[in-house]
Amino acid sequence: MNDSRFEVLSQSKLAAELNPDQCRTLAALIEMHDYQEGEVLVRERTSDENLQVIIHGSLGVIKHAGTPEQVLLNTITAGNFAGELGFMDNTERYASLVALMPTQTFTISRTHLETLLNTEPHIVYNVMRAILRAAHQVQYRLSMERSELTNYIYKQQGRY
Length: 160
Known about the structure:
The protein has helices at residues 3-10, 20-27, 84-89, 110-114, 121-156; strands at 31-35, 40-42, 50-56, 58-63, 71-77, 81-82, 96-99, 103-109. The model has no long low-confidence stretch (mean pLDDT 91). By secondary structure, the protein is α+β, with helices and mostly antiparallel strands.
């Protein structure tokens, strides 16, 4: 088994509750990817069953990527996940996922993770807990930003 896959996985949030043996088992299922600036990982209005974990670099969540109307909605930085919803339930992407600079990720597909359901259910359970924690962090951030925006609007009494 490739030691670099074990190393990057063991240092990630995805492996927070995995012991070294479980981490080795899961590391055998991940794939490493290098992306150049501007490279599209997944296009909007498509689905993808892969969870990306950013090792270094950053990914942009971009609506209308590659068009004059493109808008950067979010920047996902090293250590964070991308594609959690598609990984969980094959949800169609609202926006494209694009490398904003040279970026390295590791990827695990839902299909590969599901191969562990019968033999290593604790690994699957702990991976799903890690994904849920990441989704909660995103929800918390969005709630805080909404609250700050609402407070700003009320203080400005609707004026810009």
